[in-house]
Amino acid sequence: MAERSTLVEGLRAYRLIAGMWVRSGMTYRTSFVFTVFGNLLMTGLDFVSILLMFSHVDSLGGWSLPEIALLYGLSATAFGVADMLLGSMNVLGSRMRDGSFDVLLVRPAPVLAQVGADRFAVRRLGRVTQGALVLGWALVSVDVDWSVPKVLLVPVMLVSGAAIFSAVFVAGAAFQIFAQDAAEVQNAFTYGGTTLLQYPPTVFGKDLVRGATFMLPLAFVNWVPAAYVLDRPYPVGLPGWAAFASPLVAVGCCLLAGLAWRTGLRSYRSTGS
Asked: Residue 181: its pLDDT value, please?
């Protein structure tokens, strides 16, 4: 009951803080529109680079352009949602250095909600929109014999992928508490992770694919379930049921990230004098 009350309180605090930043960002409407549009164009350059590659080749690692677009759209959209909700976690190190993190600890609201909603930026919708556009094109263009499980698996991948990336953001913030910053390390697993998943596993070494499957299970964002949708072999010889394991992996990642966050808060010793 206490944990449920804390969760409700955290969601309420997040909503209030995020709403404050949204109202602030919407004060100058024209600037907001141009910022979102610019963000959409900047993130779209990633897919442009893939299009440029396919202007010289017919396939990449044995995957066609629509198939890679499916991977890209799933990864970019799921990451975009997580980045919009918890992208501010990567500035935790700077808060610890300037002492403002200590202020959050004494406020009557869950610290995770305060850090996650800090400087909530609706402009990040540009990344989500761009990823969703590519995903929509891929779903129409890819050669797939659609069935009910395959259709249902697409939204499951998006929700599970966003939860997995959110867990990585929280775990990375917990690591920053122990390491006293190291935001670059966190970015390597968040922004670097989504870039990794935008390409098929066949272009990477087996050890890297194993690490992204069993150590930091980013492969369950799109590689594994997309292999079922596209009727391709699963990475590293996983069993057939693994395609539907993304929700379980997401729950496990969130639980571990929550444990890491609590452990980090307990070990925090302030900035000193």
From this structure: 62
Q: Provide the pLDDT for residue 255.
A: 95
- Inter-residue contact 33 to 108 (CB < 8 Å): no
Cα gap 69→134, rounded to integer Å: 6
Distance CA 106, CA 12 (A): 17
Residue 16 lies in a domain: yes
Q: 241 vs 95, which has greater pLDDT?
A: 241
Residue 105 lies in a domain: yes
Strand partners, 60: 63
Say how far apart CA 135 and CA 171 lie, in whole Å. Answer: 28
CA triple 56-57-60, angle to 5 deg: 135
Is 89 inside any structural domain? yes
* Domain residue limits at 263: 7-267
Q: Which residues pair with 63 in a beta bridge?
A: 60
- 174-218 pLDDT, tens digit per residue, is 888 887 766 677 788 888 999 999 999 999 999 999 999 999 999
In a domain? residue 273: no
Compute the average pLDDT of residues 104-130.
86
Q: Are 166 and 86 in contact (CB under 8 A)?
A: yes
Considering its fold, how many domains does the chain have in total?
A: 1
